[in-house]
């Protein structure tokens, strides 16, 4: 009936997502507090900041100071985002980040034009230049990403065959640059996925590229996030992006205030209960979720931080026995 | 890989759940508005009120007036809850409700004692008396229910074999009273279920009673509600309780304000996207969810009412083509 992985890797994107989208100014020290708290949970990969022009994203103006202030924990990979060489150089200059390259394509030309002002051909060329930039800076390329892989507000449903083709194009771009991707991330950028489409798309990509590691980036805007993660787990997917407490929101939803990324602690709860190893201490992660909520100053969408875990009930039961 | 049903029946419990748990007094006319709005969506079963002593549940003091005010729609089954013959007689006196009997057992003796102050033996006897009460009042018995079928705050994990046995006990009680149950509802009363336990429990019950129709009552307190519904659908379950906008809350969660019942419009969105017929107009249902939120005066937990459906994007795409 299923092909569940024994263990999953969760890439925590809450700090970057949250600091980027939250309207209020968040003190640098509190950003550092959250990243340090997350690093103490057992998470092995944390996306900390975006190195983007402060004029575009005021909440990231202190990105260098945030990274400088992190108390690095061994075994944790601290990552960041950037959009150009200037940003990449800031990441490299920090000397505290795990700097690796990403290339990205998009099966929705409409979204690509709105989001990045490029045609598919222009985007292909841009990825070649990005690969060259990584080569020039001696940065390994690890990740390929497909945005809007499950549907798009501007293009509607995306044919699965196009997604499969584009995974092939990512692999070909990497090969052309004499490198190889560690994994390909399929992003449900605008929350179109359901468990059925997760199964369909992951299944078709897997059929064509059986040895390729896949990662899922899921949005919970329509409440399908955990169900979609479950469908991914059923297909053997062992790598997920997630955001503590559901930090981040979704700029493409019908309404402001809609949930964004699938919530890390809800995903860890699911894995824990299914016996899938995450390496993460759920109680500590819930403390980090409470901290995130305190920092942003408003309720965040995650469920387990409010509903509680089952641990105390099981423990009380064992003690009574 | 799966055994999805072609169509599902959703039993809307939002009005009863919401009016019962919301602290503020809700005007009778607004309760009626919500029930009438729900009846216009294509929902075929709506649980309207509880006939319980006003001293116990002040929000249900106007239950008779609410039912009297409903504008009945053909094809919609309006139901209610009661705890004793006095309540049943109120339901019968309304002459507007679809009155049918329910019996219930609980595989957690600890929860049974806390919730109903009965031992399992006493509860068995109580069900016999309830069956007799229905017989005396010429009321057909349709539904058997198991509370806490997936785990319990007071007993911890519940052995699947005990759930299977207890389903058998429900069937035997009905048979003993010379009646038969139309279906058995498995309730995740305290939100312990995950998709894995849904598959396990539903699978074992189905193995033992392959012809028995099963219904799921799922709580979303830990964010697993839709994933659990999906797991149920994968097992062929074709009947679900749900609450519009996620009305209801969960009195057993670790924190006040935790989500309760799985949200109707999120469940309908899931089914729509998977091609499973519900007979429900999702846009109208979202309007009813907005009305529910307006009536209670605070945000309710459902996602699709905030995130929006995909219909307008698909339509824009068709018009552009």
UniProtKB/TrEMBL annotation, chains A, B:
| Gene Ontology MF terms in the entry | hydroxymethylglutaryl-CoA lyase activity; metal ion binding
- Is Glycoprotein one of the keywords? no
**By its UniProt entry, which SUPFAM superfamilies does this protein fall under?**
Aldolase
Q: Which Pfam families match?
A: HMGL-like
Which parts of the sequence belong to the Pyruvate carboxyltransferase domain?
Answer: 8-286
Q: Which UniProt keywords apply?
A: Lyase, Metal-binding
Could you provide one GO biological process annotation from this protein's UniProt record?
ketone body biosynthetic process
Family according to the record: Belongs to the HMG-CoA lyase family.
Stored NCBIfam families = PRK05692.1
Q: What is the name of this protein?
A: Hydroxymethylglutaryl-CoA lyase
């Amino acid at each position: 009936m299923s092909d569940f992985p024994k263990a999953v890797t969760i890439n925590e994107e809450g700090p970057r997502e949250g600091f980027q989208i939250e309207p209020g100014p968040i003190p640098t020290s509190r950003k550092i507090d959250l990243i340090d708290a997350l690093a103490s949970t057992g998470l092995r990969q944390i996306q900390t900041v975006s190195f983007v022009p402060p004029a575009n994203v005021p909440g990231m103006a202190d990105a260098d100071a945030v990274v400088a202030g992190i108390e690095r924990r061994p075994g944790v990979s601290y990552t960041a985002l950037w959009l150009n060489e200037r940003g990449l150089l800031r990441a490299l200059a920090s000397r505290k980040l795990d700097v690796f390259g990403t290339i990205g394509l998009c099966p929705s030309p409409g979204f690509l034009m709105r989001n990045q002002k490029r045609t598919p051909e222009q985007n292909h060329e841009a990825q070649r230049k990005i690969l060259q930039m990584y080569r020039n800076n001696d940065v390994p390329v690890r990740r390929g990403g497909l945005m809007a892989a499950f549907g798009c507000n501007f293009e509607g449903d995306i044919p699965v065959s196009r997604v499969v083709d584009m995974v092939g194009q990512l692999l070909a771009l990497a090969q052309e640059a004499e490198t190889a991707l560690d994994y390909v991330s399929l992003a449900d950028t605008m929350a179109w996925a359901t468990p059925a489409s997760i199964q369909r798309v992951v299944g078709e990509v897997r059929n064509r590229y059986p040895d390729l590691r896949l990662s899922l980036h899921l949005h919970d805007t329509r409440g399908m996030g955990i169900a979609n993660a479950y469908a991914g787990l059923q297909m053997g997917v062992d790598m997920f992006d997630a955001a503590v407490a559901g930090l981040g929101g979704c700029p493409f939803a019908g309404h402001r205030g809609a949930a964004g990324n699938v919530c890390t602690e809800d995903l860890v709860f699911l894995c824990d209960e299914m016996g899938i190893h995450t390496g993460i201490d759920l109680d500590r992660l819930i403390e980090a979720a409470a901290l995130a909520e305190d920092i942003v100053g408003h309720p965040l969408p995650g469920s387990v931080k409010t509903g509680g875990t089952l641990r105390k009930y099981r423990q009380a039961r064992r003690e009574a026995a």
